[in-house]
Amino acid sequence: MSDCIFCKIAAGEIPSNKVYEDETVLAFYDLNPMAKVHVLIIPKEHIANVAEIDASNSAVVAHIFEVIAKIAKDLGLDEGYRVVSNCKEFAGQSVYHLHFHLLGGEQLSMNMC
Ligand code: AMP
Description:
By secondary structure, this protein is an alpha+beta fold. It is built from two helices and five strands.
């Protein structure tokens, strides 16, 4: 999508601090980290949010979770981490391109909402 910031990051039109990249997935550090380690993992194709996942695009979502496990290992998040995806207004989604927050590197709050 032409006006989507994460599509522009995936296309290399906007710079990012990359952690991982392959043909279908990109991971980069969040600009405003909410934990010592805060990485965003996105599909390169535009999917608005979790509500838009269906049989036509779920393969890349499964791949994203493999990538998350690899990144967590590579970054040494052996003591644990959290994976979050905000979906629509009530969850505070601010960028409408599917992304998973990988948070770790320290003890995280038990407050889930
Ligand atoms: P959400 O609020 O769940 O939609 O998450 C969007 C996230 O994208 C926020 O944590 C922002 O800090 C992050 N973000 C927005 N623009 C950029 C950018 N250009 N590079 C890295 N992270 C970004």
